[in-house]
Each structure stands twice: as structure tokens, then as C-alpha cells.
Write a structure and sequence with these properties.
Structural class: alpha/beta
CATH class: Alpha Beta
Largest sheet: 3 strands, parallel
Strand order of the largest sheet: 1-2-5
CATH architecture: Alpha-Beta Barrel
Number of domains: 1
CATH superfamily: Divalent-metal-dependent TIM barrel enzymes
Distance between the termini: 23 Å
Order of helices and strands: EHHEEEHEHH
Mean pLDDT: 96
Number of strands: 5
Shape: globular
Strand content: 5-15%
Low-confidence stretches: none
Length: 109
């Protein structure tokens, strides 16, 4: 499975459900954040750089670490305004934002 933060949050996932996951079955961890909008209004365009929105990323990361997940993480940003940024700029900002969220919980190389 893929642990996709945006889908987990928008779909009303419960934090306690993360405790039930088998970390060996998590293929990837998709990291992003979301605007403060009603859940039914969430779209790919309301995704933000990690740490800029309302998703409880710290708790999600803590729970994934607690169950033993230590696999791949990728940033998923489908926000059209980010597409207009120079590729190096968005890549740099995405990495910086992800490190702020991940490093309290995981060793990042």
C-alpha cells in the first residue's frame, strides 16, 4: 500500500488506524499538506508544501516511526501554481519543507 497523507486526511482516516499498519506492507509514503478547506472541497490543487497546511504531519510521522516504517518518502504536489516555479526552486523548497517535517522522526539521507 501507499500511505498518502492527502488521501488519508481527506478521507477521514483515524490516527489509530496508522497503529494497525504493517510497515512491511507500506510501499511508499506520499508527503504533502492541504489548505484549510472543508474535506469535500479538497482537490489536488489544494495540496501544499509539507508543513504549510492543516494536516497533522507530526503525529502521522510519529506514528509511522512507532510502527517501524523506514521506507521511501516522496513529495506529491499537484498544485498548478507550483508548476510555474523554476524546477530547481520547487525541488529545493519541497526538500527543505520535507526535511523539517521528517527529521524529527526519521533519519534522512
Amino acid at each position: 500500500m501507499t500511505m498518502d497523507v492527502a488521501h488519508f486526511y481527506a478521507g477521514g482516516g483515524l490516527m489509530s488506524e496508522l497503529d494497525q499498519l504493517d510497515p512491511r506492507r507500506i510501499f511508499a509514503f506520499h508527503l504533502d499538506d492541504l489548505e484549510d478547506t472543508p474535506k469535500e472541497a479538497i482537490t489536488d490543487g489544494t495540496r501544499l508544501l509539507p508543513g504549510l497546511g492543516v494536516v497533522p504531519l507530526d503525529e502521522i510521522c510519529a506514528r509511522l516511526k512507532r510502527i517501524g516504517y523506514d521506507g521511501p518518502c516522496s513529495i506529491e504536489l499537484f498544485r498548478p501554481e507550483y508548476w510555474a516555479w523554476p524546477p530547481q526552486e520547487i525541488a529545493s523548497q519541497a526538500r527543505e519543507a520535507a526535511l523539517k517535517v521528517l527529521t524529527p522522526h526519521f533519519v534522512v539521507e
